[in-house]
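Consider the following assembly input.
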Amino acid sequence: MNGNNNHQAEEAPIVLEARGITKQFPGVLANDRIDLVLRRGEILALLGENGAGKSTLMNILYGLYHPDAGEIWIKGEKVTLHSPGDAISRGIGMVHQHFQLVPVMTVAENVILGEEVTKAGGYIDKRDANRRVRELSELYGLEIDPTIEVDDLPVGLQQRVEIIKALYRQADILILDEPTAVLTPQESNELFRIMHDLTEKGVSIIFITHKLKEVLAVSDRITVLRGGRSVGAALPSESTEASLAELMVGRKVILQVDKDDARPAEKVLEIKDLEVLDDRKHRVVKGLNLEVHAGEILGVAGVQGNGQREFVEALTGLRPIVSGKIFIAGEETTDATPREITELEVAHIPEDREKHGLVMPYSIADNMVLNRYYRPPFSRYSILDREEIAENSARLVEKFDVRTPSIYTHAGNLSGGNKQKVIVAREFSRPVKLLIANQPTRGIDVGSIEFIHNQIVAQRDAGVAVLLVSAELDEVLSLADRVAVMFDGQIVKTLPIEEATREYVGLLMAGSEA
Amino acid sequence: MELTAEPRRETTSWLIRNKWTVVFGVIIAGTIFAALDFSCNNLTCVTAVLSSSLRQSTPLILGALCGVIGERSGVVNIGIEGQMLMAAFVAFLANVYLGNLWMATLIGASAGAFMGLLLAWMAVSLRMDQIIGGTVINILAIGITGYFYIPGLTTQGKFAPITLGPLADIPLIGPVLFRNGPITYLAIILVFVLHYVLFYTRWGLRTRAVGEHPRAADTVGINVYKMRYINVILGGALAGLAGAFLTLEGVGTFERGMTNGRGFLALAIMIMGKWTPIGSWGAALLFGFTYAMQTQLQFKGVNLPPQFIGSLPYILTILVLAGFVGRSRAPAASGVPYEKE
Amino acid sequence: MTKATATEPVENRTTATLRRIWRGISVPLVAVLLGLLIGALLLIASGSNPIDAYRALIKGAFGSPVAIQRTLEKATPLIFSGLAVAFAFKAGLFNIGAQGQLLVGAVVAAYVGFSIEGLPAIIHAPLALLAGGLAGALYGYIPGALKTYTGAHEVIVTIMLNYVAINLTDYLADGPWKDPSPTNIVARTPKIFPSASLPLVGNVPSGFILALIAALVVWWLLYRTTLGYEIRTVGLNSSAAQYAGIRVARMIILTMMISGFLAGLGGSVETLGINGRFQPGFNTGLGFDGITVALLGKTNPFGVIPAAILLGAMRAGSSQMQFSAGVASEITDVITAFILFFVAADVIVKKLIRQRGVDDEQVKLSTGWSSH
């Protein structure tokens, strides 16, 4: 793999070029002299780990950030992008990882927002707007009903709205930031088809991802970022997953977790015909059945938004249950409170660590007792024992390798990986029978992922029943002893790990072959 | 492909979709009718109560409109009270020294707008806590109006009702709707203008987007700060009109602390009106009616302590809020300072 | 695990505490100076001499034992209402209703004070205090319960309840609890019995001492008990509180009741220590000033004390200022507004004094209207 790409034989003109882009944030050099070239009608994959500087670079190209140094050239012209408006007017469109859609507005309203066609007095003709959006969506094969509220759309279609939004602004350079994170393999394939159709119509695409398989499948060229620098360029035809992974991480990575075979024992968790509503009172868990045994890791695979969040919240007492039954260690916990469930020696690594797992303005010490503060030794007769709380956290910080200047540092000042370690340390520092881990490694660095994976396996080996819910299929496949596939609020199939191939599980995740 | 031009949701009956609003509306209308029936025995009395309701509601709806456009763009305005008070004072002084009611109205509205600018600066640019920002405005207004207050100033009178020709001769409706002061007419017009602007124009679409999801608006090139500044300043002008109403059309003079909590009531009215101009108007009228009834009931000599009747509007608000409006949805980003990445 | 890891953080803690204290007081200190400066500019602009005015203000507030006593008397209810508002803020609740809770407390304390005869002072005064506090707690229960059970926002409900409280107390003082003495024509309760009144300790009102104790208890409750931990967790992150098994709804009700209790105590102290009876209009603004005091004190129980003394001093000194310097007392409101502004806009002040970093556990007050 050489740094310079000698294979740019295509005669297609350069539509976008970044030269020496540098961006410094307090404490981090997010972009360090990055170069990038995009040609007309091609798909350029921008590959890199979380924190490699991909998003910063894209936000610079979209005018959201301003680079400290470097130049941006669009269609042969040197430009300075002061705002997204500047980028939009030069034909750059962006589909953000977190969709930038107003949920309570219709598809058409979202599409025209900022580029409204108005009549006298700024009046917006809604029929006319609907018609325009419909025509545009048909032209590019992106069918959608413009009058529906975005809130009522599944994520796949919300993404479509984002693409239409960019096309409506006559974008011919499209930046897609981690577009497949929320899609099934099948939906992803549909997206790739759309991407190819777009390139044939002359659109150029930058495709940001950290998924190696997708890069190899769709891109024309690859640029790899690591630690804020562009560390190489590659062609898919000359690359393998392993070679890209090494470029991306900078060292050989173990894609497989080392573990012995499971020795499952008695049943710890049993769920019968569970039904749960989401915040909007829609039934999203629809008769779910599941069992987890001591000493095994049951991995629940599924695309985000198939009821996993509500399922785990119901299981941990955070969300009321409509019908069905839950038993933990032989006791019925269907209507139990979170505290009663915790008291049954259940540990919970929540999906959203900043929302549920931690109190950001609290010190690490206070966070480390979040669900044991009311018991001795941390309190007696409702009076807190600060010494015990401090000693507890000093011990855990060392044991779980939390990188922090002090136990009195606010949790909010820690990195993602260290925040997650604080939660893991807290949950594992008491006797555990059942571990419920929802997206335990989302968005954290590779080192912390390895550490947490090993901790989870160690718990299993100590006889804990582990329920792992993850939208990262690779995480499920590398950790689980059995794989349960969740689709549309149900477990559609449970397989031993040996039978769980990527392809088969992918199909199940999409709802086929159930 | 099932893509028809018909808006999908319009097909379900309006009555069914809004059944609780309808039921509630019927109950309120019935109560109003019964109250009028109980306290009045002739048409003159009914007319008097109803026109008094409209007059009482004017500063409330103007204040509530101030809240609506501020919050729709994402800024909570707890300083409506202060903006009103300041504007009432400035409008009064302008009237004293210029002797021109129209100029005084304009100056009062400008004073409100200036207070709006101050709030916008604190909330948007300094990203100060918006509750504190509003509290600062309230205290400042009390301080400044009190400090510069000169007892014994006299004015050149106040706005007289303008009779709208033959319309005013329609029985009952005529004297109630078409014999009012100019600021009252303006307030009614503004309700519908703002409703139109908020829900049918580019300005409204952008304002709502900024209040719901500022980052989404930012990414399509809408200037979040500018939208918030302008909305909060315009809101200040509306609160200013409310203040001007008090000194130029309602009372005719200025007293210390004369807003007497109307700005806070306006906030409650805005919530009861579900952050819409027309809904707020309904709530403001209801409030105005309870005020008017207070006077009427006392006049009639009802055997109830006046303090009980005096509490009615407030207890009513609590009941309405707890009953069904409590779970209505505020603009998602209201109260949250926006920080560009 | 070793001794070293356990002791090191303890040292850290001492320095951290000192740093936190400096960080806590430096901004308000500068804010006060800036507020006075702007007030001075306004005085100059309106043709007054700020030096004369401020000298009279300080003399009226601290110039003699009697002046100090009056300052402390003015500060006492403000400490209570400030604590009430600050306590609610800790749970993420904005209790604008301290005013109403204070009124209810004041009238009930008066009732216990004038209606029961023959009790020894050691029982009567505490009983009246407690009754007033409980009345406030009960009045605080209403918005707390409405918020948890119906989602009605506490800001609006407490604003409304303030008006209801004015009417209610007015009714009591003008009706069933009206002073029946033949000379009385205004709405007011009879004078309380001497056994219920709070005495002076030297020149210090005993209510002020109670207020200091209350601040200490509130601090202890918030930072040294599991209840305080629960309340603060709810205020900082109610989702995490739920996750931790804390019953958020119960905490909201309880917090509003404790907040109401403190405000009610403030009203009682005012009745029993200063006015000697309840009279409508005598307690106006004490609860609203509690908001200012809580914000000036950065919602810290100990911060509330100097903030309340500051406001009390301005209230006590302003009449002297009006008398001897001819400056309208409302200038102190303008100064207060600017002090509050600079405390809240601490980015400006921190830039001035070159301080960096974030505050500890700074509560977000306006997180919008959505309930917990």
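Residues 1-11 of chain B have pLDDT under 50 and may be disordered. Ask yourself how this observation constrains the way the partners meet.
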